[in-house]
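Progress narrative, work stream C.
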Amino acid sequence: MNSGGVHAFSSTLSAFLRLKFLQFFDGKNFINKNDFSIYELPFIRKMLYIFSLVFIHHFSLLILEILKGTIFNRILLFRTIFSSIFTTILCIIYFFFKKN
């Protein structure tokens, strides 16, 4: 399955929206800092930030894969939600085990 372009687009879209999500979740604290780190966010904001970006990535990825020829249905939404939750859990586990 040649889906490199689809993954590249989804990753680029997530990277493009990253600053907007950081401003939304951290507010004025983010705007005034030049050396911002995600580790400085409180746990719930960090989790929401990660879930938002993962959800955008998976949703755009699955939309583009479905536009290749299969029929659009509710399975897209379920696949997006479940894969986003699973990926977010993996990211949270990574943050717990990573030491600065």
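Work stream C, second folded protein:
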Amino acid sequence: MFGILRIGAYLVSGLTVWQFFQGDIGGMSGALHKSLALDPNHGMLLGVCAGVSNFTGIDVSLIRFIWALLAFYRGAGIALYILAFLIMPTSGQ
């Protein structure tokens, strides 16, 4: 089970890096100034998954699915969600 989670973490980090460097030179400078923040306007609960989606560029449904899988694995997703909510600032939009 740990091996599957490890492979999933590598895939998510690879997708994040790919999304970060995707695009032209002008788009890349905007990607360097993104900040990880809560997005309560587009969130279902507290806006953590929507904020991660805005930061990485990955679809919010995929982020929520991965978070739900982590919640079923020894409750790690629930603890990480609460921790992310406490640490992440609110978006200024």
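The longest helix spans residues 2-21. No further action is required on this item.
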